[in-house]
Design a protein that fits this description.
The structure holds 2 protein chains of 2 kinds. By secondary structure, chain A is an all-alpha fold. Chain A is 77% helix and 0% strand. In chain A, α8 runs antiparallel to α11 and α9 packs across α10. Chain B is built from 16 helices and 2 strands. Chain B has a two-stranded antiparallel sheet with strand order 1-2. In chain B, a hairpin with a 7-residue loop joins β1 and β2. In chain B, α5 runs parallel beside α10, α5 packs across α15 and α13 packs antiparallel against α16. Chain B is globular, with a radius of gyration of 24 Å. In chain B, 42% of the residues are buried. The chains are: A mainly alpha, B mainly alpha. Chains A and B meet through α2, α5, α6, α7 and α8 of A and α1, α3, α5, α6 and α7 of B.
Chain lengths: 292, 289
């Protein structure tokens, strides 16, 4: 900066070259800052627009020229919550995501421990293949089976199917956690007379608590977001929020504000949970291919 | 009691994973096998199945709608994934430096991939709205003609690619960013001393060091793009007409709108082999790089 402030140095001199290099560097930094801001603007704009839409009146929402400044109204949120049994749908989502995460842990934690301790790579691969196979492949037979058993529109069917979303995530995240628990600790427990199940329950699991929390939250988010299984297997008694909101656009007129409010209400819990475990999101999405 | 726990301890390697293995057998392996059986029957949900051998397969091969679905699936995937890779690399390079608010910025780009897909699809559907959507407002502000976006046959898939790219480029960026941060700083230092330009050190140091991460990102994205359902079904339901109907969406409609379970199973077998085949192919490439 001092070079810029002083009198212009003679062209070609060392001082001139320094000033020039500094100006170029400044220009480059401004350019980079602009690109970063632009990237963030593009990534966040749909969320910003979602919130604006949810707070605008219907008149402002159907204006041909977007209304950027307005007095926010809570009417859309009140309407969505009142008219669409939104709380009931939210409860359904909580029950399904909660139960499928719980059973995902019950089945997934011992499996992950076993894969980590006994080097069962084949099992790990089988679970990875389950993650890669299109979910819809399972859906036609599931539908026929659940229909025959009278389980369509029950928490049982939705919990079982959402298990397939959460359990592989839990297993893959926990494998690396369990691998990092020193085997000495476990052997010390054995020397003290602990059984393997006892050591797993009292030594391994408590030491892996942070991983279990992250894996549970991820499994919960993925179940919360799941649309396809719920679309086919849920009904009036078990409909979770994503399906309820999808139905909301299929019927009736386009209520922009209502859609915006519903979209905000579904997304909000996910965003809050994401902030808690952000380090683990990419690990989860890539099935452990990338460490957080 | 003692013998029970001794038995459990001796066989821990079988007993610990057993519940998960049973769940996989019942919930995943059985349905996949069931699809093979179903595909040999003419079977509508609620009707009685009639064995027809390979007729469903013959029908699928001569079904123009199936070919349309295959074409759309590949068109969507092979436009979206390279675009996302290019943008993902660009974002990773951009974010691979210290700047104020770096942590917040990385959190911000996580949001598109974790937000509920139905909610995202709804908001994009509103933004695409030809008469009231904000995208046309932006387009017009730039002096370009208004567009029908997803409402126009030949723009439906490119518009969906736009949504998918917005949603998933950040994931590629974050995968590559993790890889870039493990490249030793000395390599760049050495290149700088040797007089390499920024572009040269990107091309000859960064890219070779992260190439396995690039392939991993490609595999994950290609596999997920091939089976994209939520945003396509919510925004266009495969329309207008069947202009954006992918194999996935067609199989869904065949099974759950036309209730033709046998034919749907045939299409699902096809989709499954396509996805797993591409995963295996890309994985073979990964071993070579």
């Amino acid at each position: 900066m001092s070079a810029l402030a002083s009198t212009t140095p003679e062209r070609g001199s060392a001082a001139w070259a320094r000033a020039r290099a500094q100006r170029l560097k400044l220009l480059k930094n401004v350019g980079i800052a602009a690109l970063i801001v632009a990237t963030l603007a593009v990534m966040l704009f749909p969320f910003y627009w979602m919130v604006l839409t949810s707070l605008r009146s219907q008149v402002d929402n159907v204006s041909r020229i977007p209304v950027w400044f307005f007095t926010p109204t809570w009417a859309n949120y009140r309407n969505v919550i009142a008219r669409n049994d939104f709380l009931e749908f939210t409860w359904n989502s909580f029950v399904i995501a909660g139960l499928s995460t719980f059973f995902g842990l019950v089945l997934g934690l011992p499996a992950a421990y076993s894969i980590a301790r006994f080097k069962q790579d084949g099992l790990a691969l089988a679970i990875l293949i389950a993650r890669l196979t299109p979910y819809i492949t399972y859906l036609v037979p599931w539908y026929l089976a659940f229909r025959a058993l009278g389980l369509i529109d029950t928490y049982v069917a939705l919990t079982l199917t959402h298990l397939i979303v959460g359990m592989p995530l839990i297993v893959w995240i926990m494998i690396s956690f369990f691998e990092n628990v020193p085997q000495d600790l476990e052997e010390a427990a054995f020397v003290d007379g602990a059984t393997r199940i006892g050591a797993f329950w009292r030594v391994i699991l408590p030491l892996s608590a942070p991983g279990i929390v992250a894996a549970s939250i991820l499994a919960f988010i993925f179940s919360w977001n799941q649309f396809l299984f719920s679309l086919v297997l849920s009904g009036p008694n078990t409909r979770p929020v994503p399906v309820a909101v999808f139905n909301f656009i299929s019927y009736g007129q386009i209520d922009f504000g209502g859609l915006g409010a519903a979209a905000v209400l579904i997304t909000l819990p996910v965003i809050i949970l994401t902030l808690v475990i952000q380090r683990w999101i990419v690990t989860g999405l890539t099935m452990g291919a990338v460490k957080g | 009691m003692k013998s029970v726990s001794a038995f459990l301890d001796r066989n821990a390697r079988f007993i610990f994973p057993l519940p998960a293995i049973l769940a996989i057998l019942v919930l995943i392996v059985a349905p996949v096998l069931a699809n093979f059986v179903l595909s040999l029957y003419d079977f509508f949900v609620g009707g009685s199945p009639v064995f027809i051998g390979v007729e469903n397969y013959q029908r699928a091969f001569s079904d123009a709608r199936v070919w349309n679905g295959i074409r759309n699936t590949f068109y969507f995937t092979f436009t979206a994934v390279p675009l996302q890779l290019a943008l993902g690399i660009a974002i990773a390079v951009l974010f691979n430096r210290d700047f104020p608010g770096k942590g917040l910025a990385r959190t911000a780009i996580l949001l598109p991939m974790v937000a509920t897909p139905v909610a995202i699809a709804l908001i994009w559907a509103l933004m695409f709205n030809p008469s009231l959507g904000v995208l046309n407002y932006f387009v017009e502000s730039l002096g370009l003609p208004r567009s029908l976006w997803v409402a126009q046959s030949n723009l439906a898939i490119p518009s969906l690619v736009l949504v998918d790219t917005w949603q998933w480029s950040p994931m590629i960026a974050l995968i590559l960013l993790a890889a870039m941060q493990s490249v030793p700083a000395e390599h760049y230092e050495a290149a700088r001393i040797d007089g390499a330009s920024g572009w040269q050190s990107f091309w000859f140091i960064t890219i070779p060091s992260i190439r396995s991460a690039i392939v991993v990102a490609l595999i994950l994205r290609a596999v997920d793009a091939l089976k994209t359902f939520d945003i396509i079904y919510v925004i266009t339901e495969g329309g207008p007409g069947i202009a954006s109907e992918t194999l996935n969406v067609l199989a869904f409609k065949t099974g759950f709108q036309f209730f033709h379970a046998g034919y749907a199973a045939t299409l699902l077998i096809f989709l499954m082999f396509t996805v797993l085949g591409i995963a295996v192919l890309l994985n073979a490439i990964r071993r070579r790089v």
